[in-house]
Amino acid sequence: MAAEVLLRLLEPWPVKIVLDAVSRSLGASLRRSPFSAEASAELLFLCAGAVVAISIVRAIASYFSAISFALVGTRISSELRARTFRHLQSLSMRHHSHASTGDTVQRLVGDVSRLQEVAVTAGLPLIGNTVSLMAMTIIMIWLDPLIALVTFLGIGIFFLLSRKSSGSITSAARKSRKGESALATTAAETLGAIREVQAYGLEDTISSGFRSSNQAALGSGVAALRLSASLQRKTDVLTGIATAVVLAAGGWRVMQHAITPGDLVVFLFYLKTGMRPLKDVARYTSRVARATASGERVADLLEAQSDLPEAPHAVALKSPHPDIVFDNVWAGHLDGTMVLKGINLTIPAGQHCALLGPSGAGKSTLASMVLRMVDPWEGSVSLGGEDLRDVTIASVRSHVSILLQDSVLFGTTVRENIRFGRLDATDEEIEDVAALAQADSFIRALPQGYDTVLGESANDLSGGQRQRLAVARAMLRKAPIVILDEATAGLDPASRDSVLSALDQLTEGRTSITITHDINSARSCDRLIWLEDGEIVEEGPPLSLLANPSSRFAGWVRRQQTKQPDELFEVPT
Prior knowledge:
There is one protein chain. This protein is α/β, with parallel strands linked by helices. It has 3 domains: 2-303, ABC transporter type 1, transmembrane domain (ABC transporter transmembrane region fold, Up-down Bundle), CATH 1.20.1560.10; 313-399 and 481-565, Rossmann fold (3-Layer(aba) Sandwich), CATH 3.40.50; 408-478, Rossmann fold. Helix content is 62%, strand content 10%. The chain has helices at residues 2-10, 13-25, 41-90, 93-98, 101-143, 145-192, 194-199, 203-255, 261-274, 276-303, 363-370, 393-398, 414-419, 427-436, 440-444, 463-477, 493-507, 519-523, 542-546, 552-563; strands at residues 324-332, 338-347, 352-356, 378-383, 386-387, 400-404, 481-485, 511-515, 527-532, 535-540. The strands form 2 sheets. It has a 6-stranded mixed sheet with strand order 6-7-8-3-9-10, sandwiched between helices. A hairpin with a 5-residue loop joins strand 1 (324-332) and strand 2 (338-347). The model is unreliable at 564-573 (pLDDT under 50).
């Protein structure tokens, strides 16, 4: 860029030297300057060669400058996108539960790409143009301060015009980006629920809303472009006026023999070149405004702070088989809703606990606290005697495997989906845990076996097959604590039985917390904890609670037996 700027400054000087030399040869009385010379064939050829050499070297410098800008812009945007994505993953579930997935993806991909595009096409080249303008201004002041004043006036008027317009353009660009974000959110939600949309015949209704949002975003975008186009035309007129003034004033100064005709050519060239940054600013104002809006949206993501900060003095959790202790835990949602109220609970290492209770009782919140996805408002949660707020989050989660009702499988191979449980696992270990999870047979029946690439959300597998793959992944993790959150809900009896058998393998010798509405799963646990309105209202061995007709668990079992007679089991009396 420095070479390109230097050559840009030198570009009009061969013309100046030739013009002044020819003028002197014609007998004009000209002011002597360090660059004055008599016209000759050698001088003409030398200056012509200089023009060609400057053009060639400047073209080479410009080429490498453009490539370098592109590389810098790409590398910075890639780093920014990676850093933003990593930061997003560190944010708590509370943030993600309130954030729109479509809007977040739009910021991560679309807004960062827009920043890159503007940086490469406008921002970085503008640096070179600005340096050129400063250098040209110094040379023009040296040649003739009076004419240089015209350039200063032109720049000042431009900044007044752009300052008046830029605010409106940026505001319109913000509205446009918000509208595009809303479109991305609508599209993501619709495609994610396409089965329901088609089943209820909502295509036209949702398309109508999408069309209205699209028109609103288009209107904001057109408004920004209209304002930018207006600023460009004003800049063109301003440049024309400045050129006319310099031409007239410069011609008058030449007639007074204050400057040479070559000096006037340099002035006109520098004026045209020096005004280029202003034209670029005007031309790219809309892009810059949209990039500003995009930058603000990316900055909002980067500035979002996790409500689960890791303590500076945090240490790794080292206990191989930690017990779990809830000490007077009070917790709730960000809106102030209380969920858990003074929970005191100890789960010894190796014990299998079942959490039951009505919806909203706090079962999932209690389990999430073991993973430190939620912190207590008051009290503490400890693993192996260590308060979770005093140990590293990574070490806490490495001690826990979790299996949800709708376990997530990624769009990669079956083998890699299982390997996500422990990234350093060998292929042999992966196949061993798949066999233990009763998944090996159906995996080998897939088109490429373990190397079969699953579709999005693994929709080409049955619910039972997806759960068994998730069980294999959890087994591979070899974590001492297992959390099962409605892991068999929604499965048919045959699939449920196979998954339950796999879960027996998973939880053997480990501490397990099972959130369930399945009688058999609850009964098979060592201990049952009944939560209601954020409090533990009863706990104990399942059979002991069943023996008490007045217990909530016994009443729930009786109601379940009435609804599902095929799942009866004998209740001790």
